[in-house]
Design a protein that fits this description.
Low-confidence stretches: none
Helix content: 40-55%
CATH superfamily of the largest domain: Acetylglutamate kinase-like
Shape: globular
Oligomer: single chain
CATH architecture of the largest domain: 3-Layer(aba) Sandwich
Strand content: 15-25%
Structural class: alpha/beta
Distance between the termini: 48 Å
CATH topology of the largest domain: Carbamate kinase
């Protein structure tokens, strides 16, 4: 069997859903196709914003109405007169509103509450898509990822998979749907207890869901359908003449995802590498194209510099207030705070008296981190920065990227150059 994953951009309108359905129909074979779907468009952002509003406020109502009108509109265009799917949407939205209304009585923490809200994006999208695929005569079984993507307790926004329990649950789910054409699953969402307390696998985690299913089911392949023709050597926003990479070794893909290549979620590759399952990146705009493949290769093809840009970066420099050094005890405290706040370090460098980290500038989390660290350290910062990672660099390539900008931090290995520069 094969696993397909469709992200938010590939299902962000009625026409996009029709296009997704055509791709699915083209690839139907004698055994079920596992299809993982994200929330439609930017719904996750809207749900996160909804979770931050006071229930019943004008702002809350505006986001709620936007989410309702968007999904009802797509469903109506796909299935005119589709009362059943509209009823499902209404029930899901009513549950969403009820969660917001009764939040204070459950005394949930912010992460737990936010997770319970954002999972509705994938559930709404898969209910609409299930109804549409079924209307085309496709035997489609809608599953609930909260029941079989099992996680370890204690984390709600970037949960760790409990692989043994997930393996058992996924195989049981698959056996129940083996007589269908399509087994439809939500990406991104999971639970430590079968759905009582929803959680998520981290932003862009739908890729990871597809990888989990492929691992558990010994899939033939995983295909991620994107709005680009494959894995490009740079973001087209920065380079007008990008080069498509035809093949990428597993380890190279892991490195690129770790450095921030947005085309692949960082956790996606390792499970399928462990079983030698190939990963394909193809375009839903031109689905006849071959795309790019990640597999058991020795080198990338073609060999060319690869560029990864991370914007909205902040560089923190941490120095002791007393006579101590930046040694193991201080590093232990610093990393403990980073872990507690869910802040991922994109680049770090230390000396005897200072420790510098480049991280995404999440204002709320960074403010809390600086407050926590200021009791023991001096903390200085530079913001409005860009982190550029270049794989297979040359000095000419580095000079063209820096282009006279001030370099605040630089780190170089045999194959990778990372530079923190002021944004233009």
């Amino acid at each position: 069997m094969k696993v397909f994953k469709f992200g938010g951009a590939s299902v962000n309108s009625a026409e996009a859903v029709r296009n997704m359905a055509r791709i699915v129909q083209h690839h139907l074979a004698g055994e079920p196709l596992a299809v993982v779907v994200s929330a439609m468009g930017k719904t996750t952002n809207d749900l996160e914003a909804l979770a931050r509003q006071d229930y019943g406020s004008e702002q809350w109502g505006a986001f709620y109405d936007k989410i309702e009108q968007y999904h009802r509109g797509i469903a109506c265009e796909l299935l005119p007169g589709g009362e059943e799917v509209q009823q499902r949407i209404g029930n899901l939205l009513a549950h969403l509103a009820d969660l917001c209304r009764t939040r204070s009585s459950r005394h949930e923490d912010d992460a737990q509450f936010s997770a319970s809200i954002v999972v509705h994006g994938e559930i709404l999208s898969t209910n609409i898509i299930h109804a549409y695929l079924s209307s085309l005569g496709i035997r489609c079984r809608l599953t609930n990822a909260l029941e079989y993507i099992q996680t370890q307790a204690g984390s709600y926004s970037d949960a760790r998979v409990d692989w043994q329990r997930t393996l058992v649950a996924v195989r049981h789910m698959w056996n129940e749907g083996k007589d269908c054409d399509v087994v439809l699953a939500q990406g991104f969402i999971a639970s430590p207890d079968g759905g009582v307390h929803p959680c998520t696998l981290g932003r862009e985690g739908s890729d990871y869901t597809a990888s989990i299913l492929a691992y558990c089911l010994d899939a033939e392949s995983v295909t991620i359908w994107k709005d680009v023709p494959g894995f490009l050597n740079a973001d087209p926003k920065y380079f007008p003449d990008t080069i498509k990479i035809e093949q990428i070794p597993y380890n190279e893909a892991i490195e690129l995802a770790y450095y921030g290549a947005s085309v692949i979620h960082p956790k996606t590759v390792k499970p399928i590498q462990n079983k030698g399952i190939p990963l394909y990146i193809r375009s839903f705009i031109t689905p006849e194209g071959e795309g790019s493949s990640v597999g058991n290769y020795h080198t990338i093809k073609p060999e060319t510099p690869l560029y990864i840009f991370r914007n909205n970066q902040i560089l923190l420099s941490i120095l002791p207030r007393d006579f101590s050094f930046i040694a193991e005890d201080n590093l232990e405290y610093i990393f403990g705070r980073l872990n507690a706040l869910g802040i991922r370090v994109n680049l770090m460098q230390n000396s005897a008296l200072s420790f510098s980290i480049c991280v995404d500038h999440d204002e709320q989390r960074i403010a809390q981190l600086m407050e926590d660290l200021s009791s023991r350290f001096q903390v200085r910062y530079n913001d409005n920065l860009q982190l550029v990672t270049i794989r297979y660099y040359t000095q000419t390539v580095i000079d063209s990227i820096v282009a006279g900008r001030k370099v605040l931090l630089e780190q170089r290995s045999r194959s990778t150059e990372q530079i923190v520069v002021q944004r233009n």
